[in-house]
Amino acid sequence: MFASDLTEERKNEICTKIAERIVHFRLSPIAIILLESVKPISFLGSQLMVFFAPMITAFTTGNGYDEMTAFLEDRPNLEMLIQTIEAKEAERNQKEKEIKKARSEKRGKRK
């Protein structure tokens, strides 16, 4: 599978799924630093994944590995992933602020 084989819709799905997992585990800062660091060599990393594909796919099912390899082939995809992580992290922070505000208002009414 080549990067051109992935549709924009599928790229967005992959990006959103990865970003949601990273934000869920609260690894956003680490992930962003790592992605920014490996962006210049992302193509090399994807080719390394192609090299190891026969061994890895012997233990896995589906085409997720091939899709991830194709996704990492293009640098713009990594930038899109970084932006999605930042957006999801901002959403999570906003929700947490709203929950804290609601809790503090609730405590204020009890007193």
Descriptive overview:
The chain contains 5 helices and no strands. 14% of the residues are buried. The longest helix has 36 residues. The model has no long low-confidence stretch (mean pLDDT 92). It has one domain. It is elongated, with a radius of gyration of 18 Å. Helix content is 79%, strand content 0%. It is an all-alpha fold.
Mean of residue pLDDT values: 92
How much is the radius of gyration in Å? 18 Å
How much helicity do the residues have? over 70%
Stretches where pLDDT falls below 50 for ≥5 residues? none
Features:
111 residues, mainly alpha, 5 helices, 79% helix
Topology, pairings included?
Layout: H1 8-24, H2 28-38, H3 42-56, H4 64-72, H5 75-110
Helix pairs in contact: 1-5, 2-5, 3-4
Question: In a nutshell, what does this entry contain?
Answer:
The protein is mainly α and 111 residues long.
